[in-house]
């Protein structure tokens, strides 16, 4: 049943370019897809470990910059007269490096900040993103600062027997983003249903109890941060090679807020939540654009976030699932993550 | 040496308003356990009230200041009553996200109403700075320092010498016991949020005329306030004052001797450094949240 819905959804998404010819809508779908990947990675931390990372855009941006710089090459001077000269590498290497470097940054942030929790973790992650933004703005020799990195090459994939395929068109990029999104979804799904995922949820539900049964808190949280940051880095890389221009504004806090709104609306701690929330908030601007000024739209988003938290604090997907759930299936399937024991009891 | 003295003077002026911002946030954080993301918006709000009252209503500059503080107080009370009171008892993440929503909505509202073009407030102070030997400081900045110092003292007396302040401190230490002793916790929460908000508005009203006024000006102010609170220790007013001056000093020295591009990075670096080396803050007395 569940896999049926999943396959149907993938087929539906894959068929979109067949009937949708509007380039503006295609563009909106591609950027939405990229942000959904980011939102899924945020959900891994927020929904499954309970840690709200408000600097998530930092990993996205780092991925974008690493990937762009790898494929563009750079020549920077370091203190003591050293120079680093890097000749351009293929964008696909940049994609891999983006994941690795973003993951490493996630490791560092996790290592530093999981000594503190709650509000402090939130503030550390905001600070991290802001420091990274200021570095991107001021290290002009490497990043071009506000002048932006331009002419970032599109991703080239080597197909066996067919030569190289450069993904330039919207159609090709759409399928690339869809493929990465599906892989991400499957990865996160496997992860949260694994032993590691149960450790994460255990921590979120009751940290003291989790520790007492031998879950290593710091290790679990740091690993979650690494994976989450790596996925965000991959999304950033896709973004850089699709938009082909990157400036420090990519680190704007509002982008993190967009991902947070996607996750909260769709349902944190639900696998499909970020997808649903992401589709709503990714495509809403397209429909609101003719009738509302951008500022008015942002007022509405802020309002929607508040209303959702008041009316549907669990988010859309878990609320719907709770409503349509048959009592029988609750017992036989492994409780999907959002419905912890506590939730189940509340509704029993 | 004279350059260093000049940095110290600038530090005093900045530090005063930073301390105001920090006190407001530390009160709300400490007593209500709310990470107040609207703090920066209140700062912006205070600055815009200043602009409106002085330029559009034609009221005297010195009269505009208390009006801005009052407006901040009212807006703060309204936020507490409509958004935070219904959420009493929910977890810190939910209130944090609601406050983020309020921040986004209100900041975009400011952008919608007043536009993105920066505005400046004319002041009754002479252009020529006061020159004291090797250093100089504008009269406006001196006034800002004096007004901030006065507000800090007033807040200190309010918290430490009045019945309301006593009830606030009691609520901070133990909400349930305070409630048993007849403290109206709801009233304390609304008062705390309103007072904290009015202090943020005061900081904006004071610094707005020094710089320019634009809708996003509160974002950095908010994070600086977080840095000050973390530096000074949660709920610690004296810590917030000292933290405000330390942050101002770090910014001045960073801008003067490292690179002016990284002036605003100082606050963030302080946050990260404090959390690594002394996570309870420099002057911690109380328990930490979370």
TrEMBL record, chain A:
Keywords for the protein's UniProt record, in alphabetical order: Cell membrane, Membrane, Transmembrane, Transmembrane helix
MF terms in GO: branched-chain amino acid transmembrane transporter activity
InterPro entries: ABC_transp_permease, LivM-like
Superkingdom assignment: Bacteria
Regions crossing the membrane: 24-45, 57-80, 92-112, 119-140, 174-192, 221-239, 245-264, 271-292, 298-322
GO cellular component: plasma membrane
Subcellular location: Cell membrane
Membrane topology (UniProt): Multi-pass membrane protein
Primary localisation category: membrane
PANTHER family on file: HIGH-AFFINITY BRANCHED-CHAIN AMINO ACID TRANSPORT SYSTEM PERMEASE, HIGH-AFFINITY BRANCHED-CHAIN AMINO ACID TRANSPORT SYSTEM PERMEASE PROTEIN LIVM
The protein, known as: ABC transporter permease
UniProtKB/TrEMBL annotation, chain B:
Protein name: ABC transporter permease
Subcellular compartments: Cell membrane
Gene Ontology cellular component terms for the protein in this record: plasma membrane
Family: Belongs to the binding-protein-dependent transport system permease family. LivHM subfamily.
Molecular-function annotations in GO: transmembrane transporter activity
Main location as per UniProt: membrane
Gene Ontology biological process terms in this record: amino acid transport
InterPro entries, A to Z: ABC_transp_permease, BCAA_transport_permease
Chain segments annotated as transmembrane: 12-31, 61-84, 96-118, 139-159, 187-214, 226-250, 265-284
Biological source species: Bradyrhizobium valentinum
Lineage of producing organism: Bacteria, Pseudomonadati, Pseudomonadota, Alphaproteobacteria, Hyphomicrobiales
PANTHER family listed in its UniProt record: ABC TRANSPORTER PERMEASE PROTEIN, BRANCHED-CHAIN AMINO ACID TRANSPORT SYSTEM PERMEASE PROTEIN LIVH
């Amino acid at each position: 049943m569940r896999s049926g819905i999943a396959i149907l959804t993938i087929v539906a998404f894959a068929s979109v370019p067949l009937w949708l010819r509007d380039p503006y809508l295609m563009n909106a779908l591609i950027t939405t897809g990229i942000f959904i990947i980011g939102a899924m990675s945020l959900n891994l931390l927020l929904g499954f470990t309970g840690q709200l990372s408000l600097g998530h855009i930092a990993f996205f941006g780092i991925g974008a910059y690493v990937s762009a710089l790898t494929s563009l090459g750079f020549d920077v001077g370091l203190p003591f007269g050293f120079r680093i000269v890097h000749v351009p590498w293929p964008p696909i290497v940049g994609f891999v490096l983006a994941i690795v470097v973003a993951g490493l940054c996630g490791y560092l942030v996790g290592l530093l900040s999981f000594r503190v929790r709650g509000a402090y973790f939130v503030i550390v992650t905001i600070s991290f993103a802001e420091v990274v933004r200021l570095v991107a703005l001021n290290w002009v020799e490497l990043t071009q600062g506000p002048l932006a990195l331009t002419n970032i090459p599109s991703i080239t994939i080597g197909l066996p027997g067919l030569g190289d395929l450069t993904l330039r068109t919207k159609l090709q990029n759409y399928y690339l983003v869809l493929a990465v999104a599906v892989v991400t979804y499957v990865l996160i799904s496997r992860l949260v249903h694994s032993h590691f995922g149960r450790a994460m949820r255990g921590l979120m539900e009751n940290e003291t109890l989790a520790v007492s049964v031998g879950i290593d808190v710091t290790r679990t949280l740091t690993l979650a941060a690494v994976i989450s940051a790596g996925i965000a880095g991959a999304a950033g890389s896709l973004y850089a090679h699709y938009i082909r221009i990157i400036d420090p504004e990519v680190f704007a806090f509002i982008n993190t807020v967009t991902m947070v709104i996607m996750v909260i609306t769709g349902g944190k701690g639900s696998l499909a939540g970020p997808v649903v929330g992401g589709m709503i908030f990714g495509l809403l601007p397209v429909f609101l654009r003719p009738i509302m000024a951008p500022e008015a739209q942002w007022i509405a988003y802020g309002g929607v976030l508040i209303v959702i938290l008041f009316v549907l604090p669990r988010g859309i997907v878990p609320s719907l699932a709770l409503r349509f759930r048959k009592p029988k299936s609750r017992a036989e399937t492994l409780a999907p993550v959002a419905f912890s024991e506590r939730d189940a009891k509340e509704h029993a | 040496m004279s350059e260093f003295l000049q940095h110290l003077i600038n530090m005093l002026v900045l530090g005063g308003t930073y301390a105001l911002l920090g006190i407001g946030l530390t009160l709300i954080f400490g007593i209500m356990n709310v990470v107040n993301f609207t703090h920066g918006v209140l700062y912006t709000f205070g600055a815009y009230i200043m602009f409106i009252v002085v330029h559009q209503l034609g009221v005297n500059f010195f009269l505009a200041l208390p009006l801005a503080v009052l407006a901040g107080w009212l807006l703060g009370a309204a936020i507490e009553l409509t958004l935070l009171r219904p959420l009493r008892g929910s977890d810190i993440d939910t209130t944090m996200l609601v406050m983020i929503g309020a921040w986004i909505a209100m900041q975009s509202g400011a952008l919608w109403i007043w536009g993105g073009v920066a505005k400046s407030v004319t002041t009754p102070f002479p252009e020529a700075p006061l020159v004291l030997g090797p250093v100089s400081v504008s009269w406006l900045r001196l006034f800002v320092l004096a007004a901030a110092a006065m507000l800090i003292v007033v807040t200190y007396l309010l918290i430490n010498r009045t019945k309301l302040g006593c009830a606030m401190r009691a609520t901070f230490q133990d909400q349930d016991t305070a409630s048993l002793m007849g403290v109206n916790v709801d009233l304390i929460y609304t008062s705390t949020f309103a007072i904290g908000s009015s202090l943020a508005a005061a900081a904006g009203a004071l610094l707005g005329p020094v710089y320019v006024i634009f809708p996003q000006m509160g974002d950095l102010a908010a994070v600086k306030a977080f840095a000050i609170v973390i530096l000074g220790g949660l709920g610690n007013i004296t810590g917030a004052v000292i933290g405000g001056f330390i942050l101002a000093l770090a910014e001045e020295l960073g801008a003067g001797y490292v690179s002016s591009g990284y002036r605003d990075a100082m606050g963030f670096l302080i946050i990260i450094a404090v959390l690594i080396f002394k996570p309870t803050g420099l002057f911690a007395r109380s328990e930490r949240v979370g």
